[in-house]
Each structure stands twice: as structure tokens, then as C-alpha cells.
Specification:
seven-stranded mixed beta sheet; Rossmann fold; two-stranded antiparallel sheet; single chain; alpha/beta
Length: 233
């Protein structure tokens, strides 16, 4: 479809109510607060996150699925003065891309990884993801996720166990945009001022695949926060 069709039919390129819009708006605010727009290079993964290329007026790189972290690590090595951001979903970071995420954290590469967790593979139909909690129904677990597939994967806690003590690791939620904005700023400052790795998981909503109203979507993400606690890890 031509871009004009999207512009006339949606406020942004994501599904109505999607948490990516909230996350990217706060990221944009954080970049403006730090006055680093000219230095930011924004790497985006395949999946819903790829639609982020339409949001920020900065240099953008789209990578293969699960390869955003290593691409941005490589870019940072060649351009150390730039602010390297890697943006992805839970599939790109915790499934196909987990090995790259862990090694970047272990090496303390000075990049900032932002991972949006909505507990499903949203772009391809709402399948079960590593982050799907036990009992949650998806298109591939219609009766609820069972223990054979493991509990919901706690990424920041796992990354914290292997990352440098100087790395910044945190979890935020679209339910609190101001906290999300401040955590994003602290993460990017860890890269720009301290030359260390930073990782933020953002708990997000997916009304299309969750089949929830705006009110119920917010209630569900608040329930997610009980299992996935918000704050610095």
C-alpha cells in the first residue's frame, strides 16, 4: 500500500493501541532531552519492530531477524562516537537473537539494546514466545502455555547474571511512560558517558493478538508486571 493510505487510515503504522508507539514516542523524547539526535544510529529487527523506521528522524539500519544486536555492536566498533541503539521484539532478542544479546552483555559492548515484550510473536499471528507466561493462550497454545515449554523467560535477570557489573540493565512498562522515558535516558547515558552496555526490556500491549479492549490491555500489562517486575535489575 502507498504510504498515503497508511497516513489516512492510522495514527501510526502499528495496530491500534500497540505499545510500540508508546515506547518509540518516549525514546524520541529521551533522545531530544539528551540532544543526541545527530549522533544516533537506530538498528531495527524484523517483526513488528521493523515499523519503527518510520518514527525517528535519525540514521536507521534494518537487519535480519535476530541480528540487530551484533550489527549495532559492529557499527559501534567502527564509529565509536555514535550512539548505537538496537530495537527488537522478544522473538528477535530472546529466541533467534539470544546468543548475540548475551555475548554483547558479556563483552560489555557500549551499545543500548531495547527489547519490547508483549508475550507473543505479534506480526506473524500471535504465536507463543519465550516470554509467554504459563497458562496464557496464544495461537500455538490455544489451551494455555504448559510447563513443557517452560515459564516466561526473564530476560533482564538472565542478562544481568552474565553482564559486566558496570552495565545498565532494567525493565520498564508502557503503563508508566515517564518512568520508561527516564530509564531509556539512563540506558543511553550509560553508553554515551560511561562506555558500557545497557539493556532495557519494555513490557508492552498487543490488543490485536490479545483480543483485548484498551482498558483490558492496560489491566493485562499491569498483571505482567507482577511476574516481570519493573525497575533496575
Amino acid at each position: 500500500m502507498p504510504k498515503s493510505w497508511y497516513a489516512e487510515s492510522k495514527p501510526h503504522y502499528f495496530c491500534p493501541g500497540c505499545g510500540h508507539g508508546v515506547t518509540l514516542k518516549q525514546l524520541g523524547y529521551a533522545i531530544d532531552d539528551m540532544n543526541i539526535q545527530e549522533d544516533v544510529v537506530f538498528g531495527i529487527d524484523i517483526g513488528c519492530s521493523l515499523l519503527a523506521w518510520n518514527f525517528l528522524a535519525c540514521d536507521t539500519i534494518q537487519t535480519h531477524h535476530g541480528r540487530t544486536t551484533p550489527v549495532m555492536v559492529g557499527y559501534k566498533m567502527t564509529k565509536p562516537s555514535k550512539v548505537a541503539l538496537a530495537y527488537m521484539g522478544d522473538g528477535g532478542g530472546y529466541a533467534i537473537g539470544l546468543q548475540s544479546l548475551l555475548h554483547a552483555a558479556f563483552r560489555n559492548n557500549p551499545v543500548t539494546v531495547i527489547l519490547v515484550n508483549n508475550e507473543n510473536y505479534a506480526m506473524t499471528g500471535g504465536q507463543m514466545a519465550p516470554t509467554t507466561e504459563l497458562g496464557v493462550a496464544t495461537t500455538t497454545s490455544p489451551n494455555g502455555k504448559t510447563i513443557e515449554f517452560g515459564p516466561g523467560f526473564k530476560g533482564p535477570e538472565t542478562v544481568r547474571s552474565i553482564a559486566s557489573k558496570d552495565a545498565f540493565i532494567a525493565r520498564a512498562s508502557v503503563s508508566n511512560p515517564l518512568l520508561l522515558r527516564n530509564i531509556l535516558k539512563e540506558a543511553m547515558e550509560t553508553q554515551t558517558e560511561k562506555n558500557n552496555f545497557s539493556f532495557i526490556e519494555v513490557l508492552s500491549i498487543c490488543p490485536t493478538n490479545w483480543k483485548t479492549s484498551a482498558e483490558d490491555s492496560l489491566k493485562r500489562v499491569k498483571e505482567m508486571e507482577k511476574y516481570y517486575p519493573v525497575g533496575k535489575i
